[in-house]
Amino acid sequence: MTIGLGTYAFFWQWHGTASEPLGLVDMINKTAGWDVDLFQVCDYPLIETYDAEALAALHRHAAERGVELELGTRGITPEHLTRYLRTAEALGVTLVRSMIGADELDQAARLLEQVVPAYQAAGVTLALETYEQIPSAELVRVVEEVGSPALGICLDPGNSVARLELPTATVELTAPHVRSIHVKDFTFSRRDGWVGFTFAGCPLGEGLLDHQHLVGTVRPDERGINQVVEHWLPWQGDSATTIQTEDQWTVHNLSYLRSRTP
């Protein structure tokens, strides 16, 4: 099992709010600087504009910094996933995370059956993420219906809370099929005036994620499943404070995970 970082650990630093947004090379450098050797390029549309030369340069830079790459996108049309498979091959990636759109669920197995054999032949795993638009039971059904060793689940138990799924239930339901884990803690807090709640991120160990239950059920160490750190960090009032807090959360979460890794 490897502890990694994803683009969502740098969300406020590349997503247009920073005065000088980070590029992928910058994020890889920060990842390596924290002695982390896995970086997931997740929901980063600019990667789709990279030509073969740019992809080769990115792959080379990551290798020089000792950082393995993963990819993440959304959607399961064969055309889209084939494009990401080509990108994965160019970057030496062996896992691509994607998400089934709500409008794709009825035909999900049929769509995936058209492209998953190519992933399997290339030695690349496709991991479909748990999230609020798709019931976790339906996600499991699709994975089992396709029945390929190259298709599994990217477990993010916080996402499915919006479907009123308990995180521990999501973990237990999906565990046999998990191939990747997005790790972030989360909590509810009362809004001003006690009118409703805010569901947002917090540092690992301070919220509702039962990480001990997650690793005990999924067994990432035994199964070689990577844990990729992400954040749901609310805006902190200004860019500098938000970015500083984001990095503080990253350092905390890496320490938390490393202290619990054999």
State Rg: 18 Å
SSE succession: EHHEHEHEHEHEHEEEHHEH
Residue stretches low in confidence (pLDDT < 50, at least 5 long) are: none
> What separation lies between the terminal Cα atoms?
10 Å
What share of the residues does DSSP label as strand, in percent?
A: 15-25%
Please outline the major beta sheet. Answer: 8 strands, parallel, barrel
Major β-sheet strand ordering: 1-2-3-4-5-6-7-10
Number of helices: 10
CATH homologous superfamily grouping: Divalent-metal-dependent TIM barrel enzymes
Number of domains: 1
CATH-assigned fold name: TIM Barrel
How many strand units?
10
| Secondary-structure class | alpha/beta
| Mean of residue pLDDT values | 96
Pfam families: AP_endonuc_2
GO molecular function: isomerase activity
Keywords: Isomerase
Protein name: Sugar phosphate isomerase/epimerase
Describe the overall structure:
It comes from Auraticoccus monumenti. With 262 residues, the protein is of the alpha/beta class. It has one domain: TIM Barrel (Alpha-Beta Barrel), CATH 3.20.20.150. It contains ten helices and ten strands. The protein has helices at 11-14, 24-33, 52-64, 78-91, 108-122, 136-146, 167-174, 211-218, 220-223, 239-259; strands at residues 3-6, 38-42, 68-72, 95-98, 125-129, 151-155, 178-183, 185-190, 197-202, 226-229. The protein is globular and about 50 Å long.
Record the SSE blueprint.
Blueprint: E1 3-6, H1 11-14, H2 24-33, E2 38-42, H3 52-64, E3 68-72, H4 78-91, E4 95-98, H5 108-122, E5 125-129, H6 136-146, E6 151-155, H7 167-174, E7 178-183, E8 185-190, E9 197-202, H8 211-218, H9 220-223, E10 226-229, H10 239-259
Parallel strand pairs: 1-2, 1-10, 2-3, 3-4, 4-5, 5-6, 6-7, 7-10
Antiparallel strand pairs: 8-9
